[in-house]
Amino acid sequence: MPTKMSFFDVLLTACVPVIWGTTYIVTSQLLPPGLPMTAAVIRVLPAGLVLILWTRHLPARGECLRLLLLSFLNIGAFQALLFVAAYRLPGGIAALLGACQPLVLMGLVWVVERRAPRPLILAAALLGVGGIALLLDVAHRQWDMIGLAAAACGAVVMACGIYLTRRWGSSLPVLSLTGWQLLLGGGMLLPLAIFTEPGLPVLTGWNFAGYAYLCVFGALIAYALWFRGVRRLPSVSVAALGLLSPVTAVILGWWLLGQQLQGLQLLGLAPVLASVYAVQWGSITQRG
Q: Do residues 125 and 242 lie in contact, with contact meaning Cβ atoms separated by under 8 Å?
């Protein structure tokens, strides 16, 4: 039986995709249009600087190359792809491909470690993808191909980042590891923002609020909880929690923007939530 602490870790980590599920509505409703790289930099760079100044831990010399790669996968590349998708795709559409993260992780474990996925976990992951497809009513959506490609690549990048973060480990405390990745990843994004996008327009109060929310909640708090979860939970368990992100995005779109939810979409909620629970139960009882 899973321990109470294990379920507490799951619940705490589950807060992260719920927070990240708000990214789409905050980006579309509160941020200036057409500045995805700028939004990514403002989200992660200040948060990383705050955590590093607070924790004051330096990475070991032997960890620097790994830390750079993790920063690229978990922050730099992923945030760039996330905001391109968020600007070009409506609501939670991008998260349909994000729902494939558990499957990508299972493939990595299978290829690299020669560990085949348990049938229950594989079936639950496939159920989650099907539920997301119903929830987002993909058959009746118009697809932006650049946004679609960004979302697909983002799913693969994040899955690789989760896998390597857990596989390699780190001597750094969680907050320091989070801070360094946010700072280094933000530094990678900064040249893209400077050289590919115009400068910020005059910001309104809502613009400031949107950027502040994404930085404080979407990066500083969320990533600290995320990397804590990556250390404590099986990789597939963490990835499966990402299914809560599109659920959050769709519910917020319905609640705040008046987007319609039809019967089949509502039916999609059940397999998604069942998938999340089944993967947590299966992977925690297996313990890694």
A: no
CA 188 – CA 182 distance, rounded (Å): 10
Please name which of 128, 133, 134 lies closest in space to residue 278, comparing C-alpha atoms.
128
Q: How far apart are CA 105 and CA 235, in angstroms?
A: 7
| Structure tokens given for 59 | 């990475």
Give the chain's residues under pLDDT 70: 1-5, 90-99, 135-143, 258-269, 282-288
pLDDT the model gives residue 108: 83
Q: Are the C-beta atoms of residues 164 and 113 closer than 8 Å to each other?
A: no
In the block, residue with structure tokens 């968020």: 86
Amino acid at 230: V
Domain boundaries, the chain: 4-286
Whole-angstrom distance, CA of residue 43 vs CA of residue 49: 11
Give residue 179's Cα distance to chain centre: 16
Distance of CA 249 to the CA centre of its chain: 13
Check residue 288 and give its pLDDT.
43
Q: CA–CA separation, 68 vs 138, rounded Å?
A: 36
3-state secondary structure 100-157: CHHHHHHHHHHHHHCCCCCHHHHHHHHHHHHHHHHHHCHHHCCCCHHHHHHHHHHHHH
Q: What is the DSSP string of 31-43?
A: SPTT-HHHHHHHH
3-state secondary structure at position 18 = helix
Structure token pair of residue 271: 């397999």
Summarize pLDDT for 98-153 with one digit per residue, the tens.
667 777 888 888 888 888 777 777 787 777 777 777 766 654 556 677 877 888 78
User: What distance, in Å, lies between the first and last C-alpha atoms of the chain?
Assistant: 14
Give the other-Cβ count within 10 Å of 24's Cβ.
27
| Whole-structure pTM value | 0.84
Which one, of 97, 59, 235, 218, lies nearest residue 161 by Cα?
Answer: 235
